[in-house]
Q: What sequence folds into this?
């Protein structure tokens, strides 16, 4: 009788986890696509609500903190991959030339100043370009892979999440120091210098906030 | 008992190191922001 109840509890938990993940995955794909972000947020929130409901009902589902960190890291990497992927591979497309330079003119001259004038096209500052390429080729794919394994509660997912969050820290510090070195060029002639850039980017800078959590969480919850 | 004390001491050190780490990291970022802000007030952008 006891084992039957335990089996039932396990089945019920698995079913609730799957139902929540279905909403969370669809929401993440929509938000990760950049342009469909506003549609994805309510879908994602419904997934979080379902997970919370399952937790309060006493089912054994993935901890909320692990869920939020995992999905946010994946969404962050996906959004930036699309934006910077367009900058590297589609910098002569009409949409890129229009939206990127308009946005650059608004708050970040890095996407206006000498746009499409390097041999590779896109953003014209050598430092900026280097960060773009290293991020879309190495950092972001690594983050998405780590995020998926982290959500599956695998041990390597936890380990690689730590690696990729430290990498994120190096990336952001390096990126900000680099842009500050030529801030005079980067902000010259834009509509909202400095304040505009920081307001827009502050949300992208935060994912390495997960580092203290990742180093103090009970690692036994991540299994092989 | 000694083991438990050892554990908590290690945890305390780990927490302290993480706090120091966060102050250093955010300090570096705030410093960059302040450099940009100073330029914002001085330069004719």
A:
């Amino acid at each position: 009788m006891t084992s039957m109840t335990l089996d039932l509890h396990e089945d019920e938990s698995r079913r609730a986890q799957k139902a929540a993940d279905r909403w969370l995955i669809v929401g993440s794909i929509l938000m990760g696509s950049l342009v469909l972000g506003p549609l994805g947020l309510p879908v994602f929130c419904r997934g979080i609500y379902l997970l919370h409901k399952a937790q309060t009902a006493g089912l054994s589902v993935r901890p909320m903190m692990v869920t939020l960190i995992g999905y946010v890291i994946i969404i962050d990497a996906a959004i930036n991959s699309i934006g910077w992927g367009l900058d590297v591979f589609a910098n002569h497309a009409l949409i890129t030339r229009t939206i990127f330079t308009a946005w650059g003119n608004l708050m970040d001259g890095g996407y206006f100043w000498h746009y499409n004038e390097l041999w590779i096209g896109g953003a014209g500052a050598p430092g900026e370009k280097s960060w773009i390429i290293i991020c879309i080729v190495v950092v972001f794919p690594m983050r998405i892979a780590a995020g998926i394994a982290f959500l599956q509660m695998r041990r390597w997912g936890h380990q690689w999440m730590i690696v990729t969050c430290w990498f994120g820290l190096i990336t952001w510090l390096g990126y900000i120091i680099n842009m500050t070195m030529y801030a005079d060029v980067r902000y010259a002639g834009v509509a909202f210098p400095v304040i505009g850039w920081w307001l827009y980017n502050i949300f992208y800078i935060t994912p390495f906030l997960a580092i203290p959590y990742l180093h103090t969480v009970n690692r036994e919850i991540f299994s092989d | 008992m000694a083991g438990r004390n050892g554990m908590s001491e290690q945890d305390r050190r780990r927490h302290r190191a993480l706090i120091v780490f966060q102050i250093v990291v955010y300090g570096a970022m705030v410093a960059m922001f302040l450099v940009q802000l100073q330029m914002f007030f001085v330069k004719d952008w």
